[in-house]
Amino acid sequence: MLRYITAGESHGHYLAAILEGFPSGLAMDLDFINAEMRRRQGGFGRGSRQKIETDGVEILGGVIKKVTTGAPLGFLLTNKDFKIEEMPELFRPRPGHADLAGSVKYHQGIRAVLERSSARETSMRVAVGAACKLLLKAFGIEIAGHVVQIGNVMLPDEAITVEEIRKGSKDSPVRCVCKKTEKAMMQAIAKAMKNGDSLGGKYEIRATGLPIGLGSYVHFERKLDARLAMVLMSQQSAKAVEIGDGVALAGMLGSEAHDEIFYSKARGYFHKTNHAGGFEGGMTNGADLVVRLTMKPISTLAKPLASVNMKTKRPEKADFERSDVCAVPAGSVIGESLAAYVLADAFLEKFGGDSVTEIHHNYEGYLKRARA
Ligand code: EPS
Is 235 touching ligand 1 by the criterion CB < 6 Å? Predict the structure, then answer.
């Protein structure tokens, strides 16, 4: 249903995205999109690049008088730190980065590889995700993300709502809902920074207001949890996706792991627990979506690891480029955007229509039947 493609390099003049398949009739709030992009730039542990840039996009197409037309949406970001032609070539690939495999595969220097593999590309994914959030919001679906682990500092496990995540993480420099954990996370990042090291962690995304039955059980590529995992794993630094109780389910009994089913006239079918994270059989089950993504530590280290000079083939320390020390707080904003894209896509697949009016009609008809 939806498709997007991004173009541009970290230090190129522009980054761009085209989002195709978006319906007509949705108010496109550019201020919201740009505010989302600036949220991605924040977070304790980010590098100095974020002080240079003020991310925001211009809309290139698909919107007339602030309303979508059904034509492809085009977004353009102009980089301030635009100096791609003058950036030095690198010869010592950073362990963990795309440098080595990218350079061998495309038969070119590391510079060209890192310029495109850089997580700066996620700025455009946030623009795309923000448009998808606006569409979902029109149907009562809300998404929020927060950081649950940085290094070995973990937020104690507790059920939390989308609203609580929003309120609790909004002003936190590490997007964490608990002040005590936030402090320990910031101390861990400061320590890694001082030691020329980096840190990864884990964020959680929740979505609420989802109807039962998005996705499908009939084919592997129509399973919505699988589609979500694929899209989240495409985020730079991603190493693991967990849905609901995730890896903890391996140690639970069936009687503990599954969510019992209830019915009331007002709510229709519902569950009182949510071990499944909102998915059963590759479909949404009407509960909140819960997904966690693990990010490895940033691979650019001020105290570099061992590498090989690709010109001389001699052992040397890896190259160092200006970098973030920890990007998990930013990652959580990117994760919200990626989840929004997957959910908007599944929503259009189920209730598809060319205009928002048509989708409303289809959606309301389905809800009536699903509750009956
Ligand atoms: C990023 C901008 C980049 C990096 C980061 C993501 O800016 P620069 O390379 O100019 O310092 O901070 O990229 C990486 C972590 C990476 O591995 O490439 C951004 O805007 O998100």
Answer: no
Q: Looking at the whole model, is its pTM more than 0.90?
A: yes
Place of tokens 């070539």: 89
In this structure, the dihedral spanned by the alpha carbons of residues 145, 146, 148 and 149, taken in order and rounded to 10 degrees, is: 100
123 touches ligand 1 (CB under 6 Å)? yes
Show Cβ contacts of residue 139 under 8 Å, excluding neighbours closer than 6 positions: 209, 347, 359, 360, 363
Fold entry, domain 3-371: Chorismate synthase, AroC fold (3.60.150)
- The CA 237 to ligand 1 mean position distance, Å, reads 12
User: Quick check: CB of 79 below 6 Å from ligand 1?
Assistant: no
Sheet holding 67-69, edge to edge: 24-27, 67-69, 63-64
Q: Would the CB of 111 count as within 6 Å of ligand 1?
A: no
The per-residue pLDDT for range 186-218, each reduced to its tens digit, is 999 999 999 999 999 999 999 999 999 999 999
Q: Which helix (H) or strand (E) holds 317?
A: strand 315-317
